[in-house]
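Incident log, structure service

09:12 report received: a user says their structure output differs between two submissions of the same chain.
09:20 pulled the input from the user's history:
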Amino acid sequence: MDAAHLEKLAADFTLESPLNRVVMEQSGEALTLFDPPLLGYASAVDPLFEAFLAPGVIGPHYRPPRQWLADARTVISFFLPFSQAVRSRNRAARSVPSQAWLYGRVEGQRFVEALTLHLQKALRDAGFETVAPSLSPEFWTVSEPETEDGPAFTSNWSERHAAYACGLGTFGLSRGLITRRGMAGRFGSLVAAWETPPTPREYRSHYEWCIRCGACIRRCPGKAISLERGKDHHLCLAYQTVILPQCRPRFGCGLCQTGVPCEAARPLFR
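09:34 re-ran on a clean worker, output below:
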């Protein structure tokens, strides 16, 4: 099992799986959710993973790779770019996300999980122990404001930070991760007792690919993004709560990820 084989498995699964195609109930329109993924790799003992424990980065509740798998050698991260159809419909939206985006957010996450399990099985069949942190019973996430019992808007494993460590891209003002295929998409990851050369990180700082153009600020109907503070998760959640009746049975927004220079490319390297 080498990286090229793993990447072919991921691309073939994305192209062939019926889970990557939905029929939207409201319009009856068939929709492909994702284009083939980008994969990146990092050593499980890369110092960045320990750096994520710092307060203000993720925090001491974060679990580095070898706390998920003691014999971990490599972290594998993948980014699934949303298809042109999903992106274009949300690009045209103004105050409420498009139905296509909502399907990408909810049904799309089911596909992310299916691809994760597909790659995990392939690695295990090849003899490599593997853990998917976000699918583990030990994974937890908090998507609510801070309480006396714990922190706010965080988790003990971060797909975006894993992608950053794996050379896939850097953060933007909206706190999404800008890859060379943009930020409109979904991430997944695995921790494996499998070794492959790390993906070179073509950046030195975590906001390097963000050009601070302010487009995501103008696209955010909840006024949750600013040049000074980036994204305010409280305001973002408040707005998604307001529009939830219009989005049910799905949820999400993503307007800040479409209609912006980093939607489908890294802005400085078009």
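09:41 both user submissions now match this output. Likely a transient worker issue. Closing.
09:42 reviewer note: The mean pLDDT is 94. The longest strand covers residues 74-81.
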